[in-house]
Design goal:
The protein is α/β, with parallel strands linked by helices and 428 residues long. Helices cover 20% and strands 33% of the residues. The protein has 8 helices and 25 strands. The strands form 7 sheets. It has a 6-stranded mixed beta sheet with strand order 17-19-14-20-21-22, with helices on both faces. A 4-stranded mixed beta sheet has the order 8-9-1-13. Strands 5-12-10-7 form a 4-stranded mixed beta sheet. Helix 7 (285-301) runs parallel beside helix 8. The longest helix is centred in the middle third of the chain and has 21 residues, at 146-166.
Length: 428
Amino acid sequence: MHLELGHIFIKDVKFSDKTIIKDGVLYVNKEELISLIKEDEHISKVDVEIAKPGESIRITPVKDVIEPRVKVEGSGGVFPGILSKVETVGSGKTNVLKGCAVVTTGKIVGFQEGIIDMVGPGAEYTPFSKLNNIVLVCEPREDLKQHDHERAVRFAGLKAAKYLGNVAKYIIPDKVEIYETLPLLEGIEKFKDLPKVAYVLMLQSQGLLHDTYVYGVDAKQIVPTILYPTEIMDGAIISGNCVSACDKNTTYHHQNNPVIEDLYAQHGRKINFMGVIITNENVYLADKERSSDWTAKLVEYLGLDGVIISQEGFGNPDTDLIMNCRKIEAKGIKTVIITNEYAGRDGASQSLADAHASADAVVTGGNSNEVIVLPKMDKVIGTLDYADIIAGGFDGSLSPNGSITVEIQAITGATNEIGFNKMSAKMF
């Protein structure tokens, strides 16, 4: 697989009568975008707002964040199996609008969506405060069932990202990044003197509000399998979950997975980056045993020397994480796990719900129970109705003066478990 990602740097976003990119500015036809989203009969009302870095704006509750992209050359299209045909992606050329994102908000099904502050102390905990955000405020029909409600908002964000990405199809990129993974045996032969390393990417898959999609298939229905890393970079995996905002992988996270990018940076130099093994995080013990068994089997079958494992979520996914780690280590293959911690507000509690002596190489994304006071913003995009019940909040989180006292688990991406954040054992 050979993929060229063409970066088109977006320094500003403005509304206009035509959706175009000119001199680094993305101009958006608001009415046209709204009309596109309202084609879905499940959406009764939608508005589009712009939130820029440094503005006194709070976006909440955040459903998903998506980077606009367009397929220029090669098989497949954006979001295969969802908005494009089920064709394998990960090769050819894809243009990317860097510096901006689509954010979905509005009425939500559950309570685990997050907060993005564009300025202030909360902005320091989320990478999305540094982007020019095109925000969809969606109001689905009142009579929708939960699954249809979640799907309607999820699709709205994906369609908006595709719409915006399309304007970059014929633009010459400002920068091109090239990523390549050879077929298995060819790659082993070429880099035979380098240690063979793969990435085990755990996908949240625990039912409504806790799902991830692979080529349009709910990850609950998959067995562990191997993907070229470029497939993930090219939109094969999208988010449909709303686990605690701090550690959920949005679609943007999947599109820009830093573990994949960092392994590619060492590929052919210090390691042979063999690929990505995706596995799920189901709720039943039998499913956890099956998926971790298969994951360990694939790792052994590939003859790997080392593995990096990242989880998503917390609580019972900690069991999936430790199962994967324990079973892979038992085969004599070194592992490093990436997680975050729920160690209590004082940091004195056990960080994970499960543990094992073989999990002796751990990268932390920080303690999600850390408390922060988010000052009042001049503008709220979305609604504050969920401030007291959002994961990380409590009765009285929203004060009369407009400030919000919450654990940082309420901030989107604050302790992200693929390392797309500023937290670890300390703040950087």
